[in-house]
Amino acid sequence: MHQRPLLLTTMSSRTDSQETAFRGLEKEQAGKTGYFGAGADAGKHDEEGKEHHTGLSGLFSKLSTTLSSAGTAIKFISHTYEEDPSLSPHKDEQAHLRRTNALSPEELTFLVARVDKIVRDRTLHAFLGLDEDVEVDPLDVPVIGLGGSGGGMRANLGFITTMIAFQELGLWPAVMYTAGVSGACWGLAAQYTLPLDPPLTAPLSARPLLDHFRRITGTHPLSTDGVNKVAAAQGGVEALLGPLKEKEKNGQEVCIIDLYSTLTSSYFWLLGAGEGEGPDVNKGRVEPASLKWSRAFEHGGLDKGMEPWPMLTAVRHERPWHDWKSPTEPFTDDHTANSAEHEDVKAWWQWFELNPVEVGSDELEGWVPTWAFGRHFEKGVSTQNLAEYSLALLMGLATAAPAAPLSAILGTIWRNLPQNSMGAMMRRAVQHVTKDVGDEKMEHVDNVNPVHAGNQANPFFGAEKLPHRGNGFENAPRLHLVDSGMANNLPTHVFLHPARDVDLIFLFDASSDVQKGAAIDRINEYGATKGLVFTPRVKYPALDPVPEVESTDPKDKGKKIPKQLSADEIAARFEGRYAQILDGVATSVVAGHEGVVYNDKHQPQAWRDVMLVYLPLLPNAVNPTYDPSTAPFSSSYNLVWTPDEVDSIHKTAEANVRNGLPIIKQAVREAYERRRALRLAGTKNPVEVARANTARGDVEMDTYVEDRKPENVVEENAKPGVRPWMES
Length: 728
Description:
The protein has 728 residues and is of the alpha/beta class. The chain contains 22 helices and 18 strands. It has helices spanning 6-9, 16-23, 55-73, 105-120, 123-128, 152-169, 183-193, 207-216, 224-232, 236-249, 256-268, 296-299, 391-398, 406-415, 421-437, 439-446, 492-495, 518-529, 567-573, 643-659, 661-680, 687-696, and strands at residues 144-148, 177-180, 309-318, 348-354, 358-361, 366-369, 377-378, 381-382, 454-457, 478-483, 504-509, 532-536, 548-550, 560-562, 580-586, 597-598, 610-616, 703-704. The strands form four sheets. Strands 1, 2, 3, 4, 5, 6, 9, 10, 11, 12, 15 and 17 form a twelve-stranded mixed sheet that branches. The protein is globular and about 70 Å long. GO terms for molecular function: phosphatidylcholine lysophospholipase activity; phospholipase A2 activity; transferase activity. Belongs to the lysophospholipase family. Keywords: Hydrolase, Lipid degradation, Lipid metabolism, Transferase. This is Lysophospholipase.
């Protein structure tokens, strides 16, 4: 007989109506069915003879079935930690929407403290080998960022390894900002909130974090086993369903993405489960304080500059035809603009930043305290007193790849069509259909979201409309944020905030296409939105296809598969590619208007040049049998990894950083020497002008420039029927 999930059996006794509400949650079957891909039990039958759902459609079919039950069930959850005043000390405070792009007072204080710490600890002396008698002035300290890409568990484990390598090589203490997209956000958020070695205080170490994921990734967080482990743990049920209860109190609809968010986060934040033996086995715990993102400020000692300033990211899908005409009048239909500002038929993505102090967007020029995000706002003032949003729900925004628009799903299917005559015929047929439909209608179809993004209260609701900002967004009561990998799989955007002064950005990239040369195009496509042109110092040729050989596996007899490269072949193939410098030149600088120059989408334009060091996750000679881009267990959609597989990616990613160390040091030295030379020459840093301009909030200062298209990129839809997701 199918075992009842512990989520359901560890509750106190329930009434008949409560029992009915929870019954839908029992439909989750045992096994490891992935949230995108079929798991070990996929295709098997349960005792009633019903085939298990598999794959993406299967997951959401199951979640859709259980969601109505869960939505009713959360009304009966008796949770206490959301009411704990020590976890939400600002609960009874009124919050305000700040309508400028000035940095928060907390961030400005952090910057001074972090620079002082770098100078005091002689961090640059140690990393660069500077002579002992060299005095590093605070103005000499380069502002360095470290970002991690999306890519599921592969990105999470790879970025954790990169953080470990930076810490052990002595570069992490020189990093000012760190940010993630999608999968990298798991490790980044856990670094600052998960008390693996209590108390959680700076300096923080990422190595215990890798050990933690090595222990827990053998179970899928969406499987019955995963849910049961959370439910059996101390604080587990509250962590799983408490945030949904709090959101329901807020008057916001609880949707599939919210349930996905709490299922994954409560499992990933599970501590101590499985330790011990027999009846004394530890059922684990979920620490309530670990699910409050604002706590990262304290844990990271940010007021003293002890750790880099951490930033999670998400994006809003701006579809001009879909914006509200007024606070009581939503969009009319998919093809009619509600006003002149809605006439642009092109959709785009607006970036949001979620740091421990504020949540907001430099494109919309609005920021609210992190502890107040999720509350209803009207005319720039919060109208509710609620506990701080659970980090589980914030992680749902940052990692909500399942809520991607249809174009992302179609692009995935398109890229995986067979490379033969049948695949070519299917491509021609699809292009014929899209040509008949027409580009304007296809623009609307591409931007439909099959799985609805999470509903959040819009902090901009009812706020005064400012010129060029928002496209009427202030009329919408709801805010929908999704995984920022939908816009760009690298978090470059948040480092280029108009009041930040970043010299050098390290970008760890665990995207699946890092061996296809698409990354440089992706960097420049994004750079075009910020008025930057990035040029690689070394332009590497495209990698030749790996030779194919006949498979020796009896199951695949006669099938051609890529040859297994030797360590020497891998070393030669990827030589010089583990760390690549790109020089970014700002093309939209207007002297005196730094920080307030925009394109027609009100995206702030860079006012200074910036250097990137691209760190792709490539195969490495130290581990020749593992290719991060092609190993089945390394798929972006797989969340179940064995300890050996975790060790494999760690071994590869760590070796990659060490192989790239000479280039990494070269970039840091250049950034330091450039800063030092400017100080010695008495050159004034424009950042002070940018910060004054952004703090002033004077729309008369705003300057607009034409959008710049990235070089060497074919304009979208240049041919009738060709959509942006139709990659070669």
